[in-house]
Specification:
about 110 residues, alpha+beta, 4-stranded antiparallel beta sheet, 4 strands, about 30% helix, about 40% strand
Length: about 110
């Protein structure tokens, strides 16, 4: 039985000082967050799939996902997304897989 799937990990959050909440009109209350999804097998991360994000107003608690964001907020989110770098542990499973393949290749060569 193989257990596989994907999981999101929080990368970075930043408060926007210039954006206005489209729901309540409060300026400077939006917090933009970036998350990175990665594929895993047996809860060991293999590789990143992509980045997703959202903005939440700290005044009215309204949440907007990337596709729902107005253009001005989306531009700020894209700048934050480009600055946010993922942790190296999200490649741990890929490293384990490569080491396993190399060890198997070496053992086949030694048997020959």
């Amino acid at each position: 039985m193989i257990i596989y799937g994907s999981k999101s990990v929080h990368l970075k959050s930043e408060r926007s000082e210039i954006s206005v909440c489209p729901n309540c009109g409060t300026q400077g209350s939006l917090v933009l967050s970036v998350y990175r999804r990665h594929a895993h097998i047996f809860w060991i991360p293999l590789f990143p799939i992509g980045k997703k994000g959202l903005s939440q107003c700290q005044h009215c608690k309204n949440v907007l996902y990337t596709k729902e964001m107005p253009l001005s907020i989306r531009k700020e989110y894209n700048l934050l997304k480009n600055k946010a770098k993922g942790p190296l542990w999200q490649y741990a499973g890929l490293g384990i897989l490569i080491i396993t393949i190399v060890c198997a290749a070496i053992s086949v060569q030694l048997e020959s």
